[in-house]
Design a protein that fits this description.
This protein has seven helices and seven strands, in the order αααββαββαβααββ. The protein has 245 residues and is of the alpha/beta class. A seven-stranded mixed beta sheet has the order 3-2-1-4-5-7-6, with helices on both faces. The longest helix is centred in the first third of the chain and has 14 residues, at 54-67.
Length: 245
Amino acid sequence: MNSAYKLDFTRLKTLLAPCLKSISINPSTDLIRQDENNDSEFYSTPRFVHHIDERARSVLSQFYTYAIPQTMETRTLDLCSSWTSHLPENFIGRVHGLGMNELELKENQSLNQGYTVQDVNLNPTLTQFPSNTFDSVICSVSIDYLIHPLKIFNEIGRILKPNGVFLTSFSNRCFPTKVIQKWLSMDELQRVQWVANYFLLSDIYFDPKTIAAYSFFDGNFLPMTDGEFVDPMYIVLGKKIDRID
């Protein structure tokens, strides 16, 4: 896809029903994984590879520019960061990364405000960040690996500024031994609803009316496939309630 081609994201229509209903989560069956060994071992070797194809990366990058305020004072946290944040080169704002592999984080040119090395599956708290710090938080193609999702979502809600946005994205690729068990048993629309449920169950911080989900390659907004490019891409997002904690 030509990255210079500007997409009209106002044409996107949410995949979610107007009135969301919460889904119960059973941690002992839903959030377990095939490989329960320490994640630091699995991610100790840097992987300087892309986990989604070029078309998906291009559209995701453009959507971030569309959804995140482009000002020099905008503060963004890249959760589960790596050597790339999928942000455009001309992204305006201050970006801090939080991820597991320091060698990857050092190579990430988007992280102009440094990085933190942390395994959020081992320590799902973000106490190093004061409340109401960030205008946006992104989590690119990693939401399916969280084993304490509600703790993380509540921490994200705490550190976002009022009306700040949390943007999660995923495709259909994964490390099957490391994603949560529930993920492997769901189709793609069910996964969208599952992630939206994390926002819904964190309604102390996130406004249920702002939860939305989009498919970029649904045959309406963009073709489902385009030659060699076949990766789907989904966004699920929500905004913090417009109030000061």
